[in-house]
Specification:
- This protein is of the alpha/beta class.
- The protein has 2 domains: 78 residues, no CATH class; 153 residues, 2-Layer Sandwich (Nucleotidyltransferase, domain 5), CATH 3.30.420.
- Helix content is 42%, strand content 13%.
- It has 10 helices and 6 strands, in the order ααααβββαβααβαβαα.
- Strands 1, 2, 3, 4, 5 and 6 form a 6-stranded mixed sheet that branches.
- The longest helix has 31 residues.
- This is IS3 family transposase.
- One of its GO terms (molecular function) is nucleic acid binding.
Length: 300
């Protein structure tokens, strides 16, 4: 009889709320099933962030959905936002506070050739920029050259100074990594590194047209700025306590993961390496989302 009391209590409680005992047990089963689903999703998030440490929620949603489709597990973006928020796994934005461009130099400036240009193929336009990484009591400077069509980082260099040598090394790497030999436009800000004779001569010797921002407006080189932000924010490279040499290794691994693993909504959710092999207009899969909190969820 004692064993029947708990069942009797549940039956009475269910009756008070107009529910059957079967509905109660069905609720418990769904709750357990949801907990298992949450655990599977969180484990996938942790696994992905081992290679893409601060990838945004929309990219995570795309990557995880593909992995779990065979297990018949599906969920929406809002569900993932709320789940990550509950477990404090959303990524907050960080602000840039160091200037790496000196456009007030005496060297020749070039016109903006990419204004209103529609990019339709890989290696049509390269965008370049320099960003900083804090190394204890000093700074390291990362020069990047990115393909505007595929978002692939074609060349990069990490140095302890802001000389043109870092930009030249990144450009040499980009030239060596070319897959196509049609005309290229190289677009940058008006920093002294990009205006230097050595850099300009290297561009011209490789038949690369030169384009620069005209008014110092960062939006004229927005894609390069965006890629800088992705590399630093999603791969924890705003600052490093590893020292210069180990930080350089981390940058190499991060750029490899960025090119090979990270999907871009503006490239039909292809990785940069995969997008670089395409030859047609890529579908943009991003939209503007309004949410009540200010978290990083990249659209690029």
């Amino acid at each position: 009889m004692k064993e029947d009391f708990p069942h009797l209590g549940i039956a009475v409680l269910c009756g008070l709320f107009g529910k059957t005992r079967h509905a109660y047990y069905d609720f418990l089963w769904r709750k357990e099933s949801n907990l298992i689903k949450e655990d599977i999703i969180l484990q996938e998030v942790i696994a992905i962030r081992k290679e893409l440490p601060r990838v945004g929620t929309r990219k995570l949603h795309y990557l995880i959905q593909n992995k779990l489709r065979s297990h018949e597990i599906s969920f929406g973006r809002d569900y993932l936002f709320d789940l990550l928020s509950e477990h404090k796994l959303l990524i907050r934005q960080r602000r840039r506070n160091v200037v790496t461009t000196n456009s007030r130099n005496w060297m020749r400036k070039y016109s903006n050739l990419v204004k209103n240009l529609v990019v339709t193929r890989p290696e049509q336009v390269w965008v370049s920029d320099i960003t900083y990484i804090r190394l204890g009591n000093q700074w390291g400077y990362l020069s990047l050259i990115t393909d505007a069509y595929s978002r692939k980082i074609m060349g990069y260099c990490f140095r302890e100074d802001l000389s043109a040598d870092g930009c030249i090394e990144a450009l040499n790497m980009a030239v060596n990594n070319r897959l196509y030999y049609e005309s290229i436009i190289h677009h940058s800000d008006r920093g002294s590194q990009y205006c230097s004779h050595k850099y300009v001569d290297l561009l011209l010797s490789n038949n690369i047209a030169i384009s620069m921002t005209e008014k110092g407006d960062p939006y004229e080189n927005a894609m390069a700025e965006r890629v800088n932000g992705i590399i630093k924010m999603e791969f924890n490279l705003y600052e490093s306590t590893l020292g210069f040499d180990q930080t350089k290794i981390k940058i190499n691994n991060s750029i490899k993961s960025y090119n090979e693993l990270r999907p871009h909504a503006s490239c039909d959710y292809l990785t940069p390496n995969a997008a670089h092999l395409q030859s047609e207009k890529l579908k943009k899969r991003w939209k503007n989302y309004n949410r009540s909190f200010n978290y990083q969820n990249s659209l690029v």
